């Protein structure tokens, strides 16, 4: 009888946390808010942060259930701390910070530098916070979204990485270099591949190769995806081009064997 009380308290606490978060921070259904330009970037930040919050709630849910034998008092305190921390994270980055242009640029440089150092140390969460602060200062900062996407990819948070890179493409204007746009399509292709969205990944790497036809990295990825899709024609084409531009690629022999097995 007494052993079940902590479990009941866990479930009640988690229910309260989830209800509060779902009511206050609904996940946006789409990044396409072109009819409200002023809110576009804010909604993207909302989506990425809300996704992070929901993932953390479920992660901690499993953790709490595993330790349901801990005293009910400690469980209640811990659940309250978790809820407070998640809400604080959300509120901290919700609105843009207003600073003079000169101060803003200096602050952004410092935040990027700190993010780089934290990333080198493997402190992914702290690095992400610095980049989100940059987005708070400059909601159209493409570099911040690119680096955030890279961090999410490294941390295997593929959905958030996909959102970040997709938003970069929306931020890019027509005057952006084709090579820079191609690089983002390449990043998206890698993310999509990890998410097993192979058709989408194939289309994105094709867009990258349409700009840089002989880029070895792009051809390598095209070849991998074509093999996964059992598309022998595309795989052969990518193989021949890759062999031509990068004959020393150590993966060529293995690629050739896999293509023959298709």
Molecular structure report:
The structure is a single chain. It is elongated and about 60 Å long. It folds into three domains: 1-95, no CATH class; 97-167, Tetratricopeptide repeat domain (Serine Threonine Protein Phosphatase 5, Tetratricopeptide repeat); 172-262, Tetratricopeptide repeat domain (Serine Threonine Protein Phosphatase 5, Tetratricopeptide repeat, Alpha Horseshoe). Mean pLDDT is 75; it is low at 24-36 and 60-90. The longest helix has 27 residues, at 40-66. 75% of the residues lie in helices and 0% in strands. Helix 1 (4-24) runs antiparallel to helix 2. By secondary structure, it is mainly α.
Strand-helix topology:
Elements: H1 4-24, H2 40-66, H3 72-92, H4 101-120, H5 124-137, H6 142-154, H7 158-171, H8 178-194, H9 198-211, H10 216-228, H11 232-245, H12 252-260
Q: Provide the domain count.
A: 3
Report the biggest beta sheet as strand number plus sense, adding barrel if it closes: none
Shape: elongated
Supply Rg.
22 Å
Beta-strand segment tally: 0
Q: End-to-end span in angstroms?
A: 60 Å
Report the portion of residues in β strands.
Answer: under 5%
Order of helices and strands: HHHHHHHHHHHH
Count of DSSP helices?
Answer: 12
Integer average pLDDT: 75
Instruction: State the low-pLDDT regions, or none.
Output: 24-36, 60-90
Class based on secondary structure composition and strand pairing: mainly alpha
